[in-house]
Amino acid sequence: MSTGVQPDSGRVRASSAGGVVVWQTLCILAAIGFVWSCVAFKWPCRFLEDPRDEARWSQAGFLGAGVLTLGCLALLPVLRHVHAQRDKSVTVCSYCRKVHTPDNDWEHFEVFFSTRRLAHFSHGVCPECGDRVMQEYRAGKEDAGAAGPPETRRFVA
């Protein structure tokens, strides 16, 4: 028996949110680098004609820690959003409407949603349908995998 065909769950949403995380991280690092370069190269002394010529490393460390803390706080909502979207994804068999559960099992659509409330769907192929469709395809059947009428049985949890 095959394991079924599974899509790359949440790939589009995670990649777009992942891009936000990358850009926010780069901006945080750039801000910290700017603070440290101001101290190392004494930019305020050169451009603002500040008579004090000493490097204030403790001040730069404090500012860098503040920028890092604020940056991490800015990243938390994005990471929570990515995690929440990944948990909401549901894979449904394209042929028989069985739902792939987190326990790596397949349940009927009605049974699954009678106990859970989820928002996003994706389609895959459960192992039974994958085996059946591949046998039909190898046998040369032209409409291999064509969805038939849905089952008329009702499942009650």
Summarize the structure in words.
With 157 residues, the protein is of the alpha+beta class. It has 2 domains: 11-86; 94-138, no CATH class. The protein has helices at 11-41, 43-47, 57-88, 109-115, 127-138, and strands at 89-93, 98-100, 106-108, 120-124. Strands 3-2-1-4 form a 4-stranded mixed sheet. The longest helix has 32 residues, at 57-88. It is rod-shaped.
- Describe the main β-sheet briefly: 4 strands, mixed
Considering DSSP H and I runs of 4 or more, what fraction of the residues is helical? 55-70%
Q: Number of helix segments?
A: 5
* Arithmetic mean of pLDDT: 74
Number of strands: 4
Question: Which geometry do the CA atoms define?
Answer: rod-shaped
H-E order: HHHEEEHEH
Structural classification: alpha+beta
* Assembly classification: single chain
Beta-strand residue percentage: 5-15%
Q: Please tell me the total number of domains.
A: 2
Contiguous runs where pLDDT drops below 50 for at least 5 residues: 9-14
Question: How far apart lie the N and C ends?
Answer: 27 Å
Lateral arrangement of strands in the main beta sheet = 3-2-1-4
- Give me the Rg, rounded: 27 Å
